[in-house]
Amino acid sequence: MPKKGDTNKKILITLPKPESSRSPYFDLAAKYNVEIDFYPFITVEPIPSREFRKQKIDITSFSAVIFTSKNAVDHFFRICEEMKISVSQDTKYFCVTEAVALYLQKFILYRKRKVFYSADGSNKALFDVISRHKDNEKFLYPCSVAFDSEITNWLKDHNCEYEIPVLYKITSSDIKEVVKKNYDIICFFTPGGVRSLFENFPKYKKKETAIGIYGFNTIKTAEEMGLIPDFIAPTPENPGMTAALEKFISGSSKK
User: Fold this and answer.
1) Which of 1, 58, 172, 217 has the fewest CB atoms within 10 Å, counting from its CB?
2) pLDDT in tens, 186-201
3) Are residue 61 and residue 150 in the same domain, yes or no?
4) Could you list the residue range(s) of the whole structural domain that residue 90 is in?
């Protein structure tokens, strides 16, 4: 396990490199003298507005939106801008994590009375929140081509009126040369990132590599594919991946 002062530990973050030099990952690398690389395991491709029109979904007729990722947020508001759709200030937003909820501040005036999120990042906790507010609401669930059927099944089973606008698609990146660098730690943030690993390496075994995973749905996907995490986030102790990663590399993590 890496400790402060180690110089040979390599960590792979399966996200694009932060644009800001003030990223906490850079602080972590300097503090513990470890090497941190960034490489996205997935590519997100937008569905053009001309293709979206074929879905015949009137965004303005819905009163609530369910977001399960920052990608969904980005592409929802992208489509609205491209199609010159004005989203009502009364629209309610239900997010799978607090991080996704806070990300909405890029696009809307954030008010707690209209932005809600899962207590622990799980679909179950998200459903608990939606249940308290679902009366008389019409839900949009913006997603990729491969959407979470657990959410749509719940909406259907609870007689909610909803539509599933497909706004982007996720494809696996070619990561063969990257993973061959034998990283000591790899951190995942999306189910698609986990699937990308196994699409590139169908017989992948983590061996001595430690695995960090962010998000309940990402953890679920990893475990289904036999990739058991060594540390996870968010948790009450580790609200973000950088906190969980620091505890792990400093030797204070229990697992």
Assistant:
1) 58
2) 999 999 999 999 999 9
3) yes
4) 45-170
